[in-house]
Write a structure and sequence with these properties.
Elements lengths: L1 E2 L13 E2 L1 H10 L7 E4 L7 E2 L3 E2 L9 E2 L3 E4 L1 H4 L8 E9 L13 E5 L11 E4 L28 E4 L9 E2 L10 E3 L7 H9 L4 E5 L3 E7 L3 E2 L10 E2 L2 H12 L2 E8 L3 H11 L5 E5 L9 H7 L3 E2 L5 E3 L5 E7 L1 E2 L3 E7 L4 E6 L3 H20 L10 E6 L5 E2 L5 E9 L4 E4 L8 H5 L3 E5 L3 E4 L4 E6 L2
Parallel strand pairs: 2-22, 8-9, 15-18, 15-19, 16-17, 19-25, 23-28, 26-29
Antiparallel strand pairs: 1-31, 3-14, 4-14, 5-13, 6-12, 7-9, 7-10, 8-11, 20-21, 21-22, 22-24, 24-25, 26-32, 27-31, 28-29, 28-30, 30-32
Helix pairs in contact: 1-7, 4-7, 5-6
Length: about 450
């Protein structure tokens, strides 16, 4: 790697240039995990448990069959074969959910279905395929339905194979015992965890709810997908990308259609959205252009003098628009809005800048709101060797994030597309971000880099 002398973190005019780490720390210092609530199981999917859940009853709660077959005493089928089958008297059926159970005595058996409780006296289950199914013929492929031929719950059955004690029997408590820890606080509830909670009889659970994230894109040039483009217009992709990214992070995302470049309209839209937002994300309008509407609208939320680059409202709203020592994504805005001090992150409008900024700053904020441990707040990163035809350049004093394709088997990463902040197609084919430190201006092939994994 080639390095340049570190630059003092100041811009022209004396304004501070923030590092990526400083900005993230500032964002996370204003974000607190959401208050826990009690939710129905399916409503709790994707949420984080706030308490340990113990098992109230053993699972399974009784010995039961893992096969459709016959409940037997092992002594009665000892030495059984197709040539010399054990002939047993069928004393009844045992279906899943059965209450009263027949007792299996010497020389007797009961038809038993998968999940049905093992009847008294029985020591094992022989699969129906090991028997003649009560037909008097060869090996059975299945049982005659009870509704079609209830008489087959009686009569005789020939068993062609021996069975050891507890064969094809799920023992009581073999999954979990009463008093065991089912799920620990901090667990994210996915489908398997929801299944376990249901299996042990929990109808509700106490969790931190999924954060509600409202995404607004700004720009009079933006047209919604499916509509016709006119001169000077482009399709709004940022709000779709960021809403999808918010969902991927674990949030409930609300996408607001593009807001025109009018400060009053944007302020009104944000005020309307506060009622359903735990976090607000805007994209576009945070630089120094004449039509950078987000900066214009939110810089006037209140009175000046709250600090460098900041404005503070009488209700405690605070916004700070700053420059970061990074590429892409140099212009950023962050603060809290409204009476509940709802966090708002204002991201740049170029698609790649917007997405990279989301991954670095918004995703950690969402994960913090969820109450996840620090180890799960950020994307995982690895070290990988650069695989490229030529050296990659990087601006002095900026931490650069380049799109990459990571190969875990070879431990290498290859660049995808160029460094332009508008190259959406390249972003769609990348699965990682290659990180070039601030003091590095050139990265030669074969150099080891930090790689942030996006998948």
């Amino acid at each position: 790697m080639s390095s340049s002398a570190p630059q003092h973190p100041r811009l022209a005019g004396g304004h501070r240039l923030w590092s990526v780490d400083e900005h993230l720390a500032d964002v996370l210092s204003a974000v607190r995990p959401l208050e826990p609530i009690e939710l129905q199981l399916l409503d709790a999917q994707g949420c984080v448990l706030v308490e340990d859940v113990t098992v109230p009853v053993a699972l399974p709660p009784f010995d039961n069959s893992s096969m459709d077959g016959y409940a037997v005493r092992t002594a009665d089928v000892q030495g059984a074969s197709e040539e010399f089958p054990a002939v047993l008297t069928v004393v009844g059926d045992v279906a899943a959910g059965s209450g009263e159970l027949p007792t299996v005595g010497p020389g007797e058996t009961a038809r038993i279905m998968t999940g049905a409780p093992l009847p008294p006296g029985a020591e094992a289950v022989v699969p129906v395929e090991w028997t003649d199914g009560g037909t008097g013929g060869g090996a059975a492929a299945g049982m005659t339905p009870a509704s079609a031929a209830p008489e087959h719950a009686g009569g005789e059955v020939r068993v062609h194979r021996a069975a050891e004690a507890r064969a094809h029997v799920r023992s009581r408590g073999s999954d979990v015992q009463a008093g065991d820890l089912a799920l620990a606080a901090g667990t994210v509830l996915g489908p398997p965890q929801i299944a376990l909670l249901a299996a042990i009889g929990r109808g509700t659970v106490r969790v931190r709810p999924r954060p509600r994230v409202v995404v607004l894109s700004t720009g009079s040039e933006l047209v919604q997908p499916g509509e016709a483009l006119t001169a000077g217009t482009i399709y709004d992709s940022n709000s779709f990308a960021l809403a999808a990214a918010a969902r991927d992070a674990g949030a409930i995302a609300y996408r607001v259609g593009a807001v025109a470049d009018d400060a009053d309209t944007l302020r009104a839209t944000i005020e309307d959205q506060l009622i359903r937002a735990d976090l607000l994300v805007t994209t576009g309008g945070v630089s120094v252009g004449a039509y950078d509407v987000v900066k214009e609208a939110l810089s006037s939320v209140g009175q000046s003098g709250a600090g460098e680059g900041e404005d503070e409202d009488v209700d405690g709203s605070r916004m700070d628009f700053r420059k970061l020592a990074m590429q892409p994504g140099k212009p950023q805005g962050f603060g809290t809005i409204g009476p509940d001090h709802t966090p708002l992150l204002a991201l740049p409008g170029n698609p790649v800048s917007s997405y990279v900024s989301f991954e670095l700053f918004v995703r950690p904020a969402i994960r913090t709101l969820m109450g996840l441990p620090e180890s799960e707040v950020r994307r995982p990163s690895v070290r990988a060797v650069l695989s490229a035809d030529k050296a990659l350049g990087s601006p002095a004093g900026r931490r650069q994030f380049l799109r990459g394709k990571y190969d875990a088997e070879s431990g290498t990463v290859a660049p995808v597309g160029g460094s332009g902040s508008h190259l959406i197609a390249a972003l769609a084919h990348a699965d990682s971000l290659m990180v070039v430190p601030e003091d590095v201006t050139s990265v030669e092939p074969g150099t080891e880099l930090e790689v942030v994994l996006l998948g």
